[in-house]
Amino acid sequence: MNPEIHVHRFLTECTVGDLDDEATPVADLYGMYIIWSEQQGTEPLAVQAFSAAVREEGIEAERRRSEQVYTGLLPTGAIPIQYILETDKAPSPNSGLDIFPE
Predict the structure, then answer these.
(1) For 18-77, what is the HEC assignment?
(2) Which residues, in sequence order, are CB contacts of 51 under 8 Å at separation 6+?
(3) Which residue of 11, 18, 52, 72 has the smallest Cβ count within 10 Å?
(4) Do residues 42 and 1 touch, judged by C-beta distance below 8 A?
(5) In this model, does residue 101 exceed pLDDT 80?
């Protein structure tokens, strides 16, 4: 499958865009993409190819606080929850995944 189409499908199925106050860490989005790819039965792209395909979708990474994030992008659906459960990683302060109340 064409890498751009593959990543476009992931972004369409697993994210919501154009959200001004949201940001998703680059590393977290890539981790979610790997889980999604495995569920699709496809080989995930290498991180550089994934990043290039995301840029082709018009989504640029920027530095926020101490990490690279995709601004305006929020993961949605079951993949982000599965990612958190599999990695035991709480959402970052830049992430919109505030599913754990303080």
Answers:
(1) CCCCCEEEHHHHHHHHHHHHHHHCCCCCCHHHHHHHHHHCCCCEEEECCEEEEECCEECC
(2) 26, 30, 61
(3) 18
(4) yes
(5) no
Q: Which residues contact 33 (CB under 8 A, 6 or more apart)?
A: 7, 10, 14, 44, 45, 50
How much is the pTM? 0.81
Task: Give ∠ CA 72-51-94 in degrees, rounded to 5.
Answer: 35
> Could you tell me the two tokens for 90?
């709480």
What's the topology of domain 3-87?
A: Arc Repressor Mutant, subunit A (1.10.10)
| pLDDT exceeds cutoff 90 at 20 | no
| Helix, strand or coil, per DSSP, at residue 83 | helix
Amino acid found at 84 = I
